[in-house]
Amino acid sequence: MINLASRDILHGWGKFVFTGIGLGLLIGVTLTMAGVYRGMVDDARVLIENAGADLWVVQQDTLGPYAEPSSVHDDVARDLLGLPDIRETGNVTYLTMQIRHNLKDTRVMVVGFEPGKPGEPGYLIDGHPVMRPHYDALADIKTGFNVGDRITIRRHQYTVVGLTRRMVSSSGDPMIFIPLKDAQEMQFLKDNDALVNERARTAANPAFNRPGVPGLLEAIQSSQTSSHFVNAVLVRTTPGMEQDVAAQIVRWKHLQAYTKIQMDEILVARLIATSAKQIFMFLVILSIVSAAIVAFIIYSMTMNKVREIAVLKLIGATNRTISGMILQQALALGVIGFMVGKLSATLWAPLFPKYVLLLPDDAIKGFILVLLMCAIASTFAIRAALRIDPATAIGG
Question: The domain containing residue 290 runs over which residues?
């Protein structure tokens, strides 16, 4: 009686294996969806770690440069050095945009940074750091660029002098690092045609040509051709003093300062929250569909063996033996499905445009859930088998 399940599986192994493969592909999609969520969280936390900062100082009443627009004067970095327990500051800008290279569009986050200060990539896998004050760039390998490539960003050409790895935005876009002055010009300055139109509009405004306001028109026009704004100031503090320094900045500088823990909460708990709920709904739907497939397959296999089960009952097989046979078949189907699913997810994960992080803990939990799902799904077939009349074996 112990080998009833294995003998039945061997009798129709083709159908059983192909069913397991189909279920496995569905499980593979489920594991991949979980990996996409894990990848989103990892991208957000990698972004925080790669900044190399203890505090993010941004515009007052904003959530920081990754969640919403922020604009502060670049001389704030110098002013903050006068506060106690601040070791180092660095200005940064962030701008997500589309760039074109070799007839291919690539969505990237362009980061303006000051070499040797917070915000600079912590390591390179090829090339060298930015050496010139203008037109050098560092690129993440996910962009597909190589050292020596010349790329056009807005009106200027940049030479890729170094490559980084896992330098991505919270949405998974690869980063390109350029000197701060170039990034400020790119983000905050207007193009030539817009400047000409703006100057003409300003000069024609009677409010700026009144007597008694000398130099006002010139000052406005000068501000249109220069930029001294950044999106955030990254701060390194004395270890353990982040909260105290942040409180001082908020109180005395009228700016907002976030610690690593707070920035993690903003990115993961707020920005990714909606995506997480959506992915969770997909996981629930896929789990229900998988359970329904297992229940239908096991029920069909059981109903195709009505006469055989009746014979087993007739010769003295207990309900426990028959239930065990059906449960073993369901669990075997789950094991095959999970193995196929895990292999499939591992193979196609690198092909996804976003980072898919498959954790061993998630695989273990997934395996347990698959077996539990198969066990629950088998109850429908078990109930149907236990209702079979042994007389069916004689009357057939």
Answer: 4-43+274-395
For 83, other C-beta atoms within 10 Å of its C-beta total 16
288 and 340 part of one domain: yes
**pTM reported for the whole predicted model:** 0.77
Determine the pLDDT at residue 40.
87
H or E element at residue 259: strand 256-259
Strand partners for 168: 174
**Over the stretch 28-55, which tens digit does the pLDDT of each residue have?**
988 998 898 888 888 888 889 888 899 9
pLDDT under 50 in the chain at which residues? 1-2, 4, 216-217, 219-225
> DSSP secondary-structure letter at 191?
P
Which string of b and e fits 354-380 if b means at least 16 CB within 10 Å?
A: ebbbbeeebbeebbebbeebbeebbeb
Q: Is 170 helix (H, G, I), strand (E, B) or coil?
A: coil
Q: Are residues 91 and 181 in the same domain?
A: yes
Chain center to CA of 327: 38
The residue assigned the tokens 């976030």 is: 258
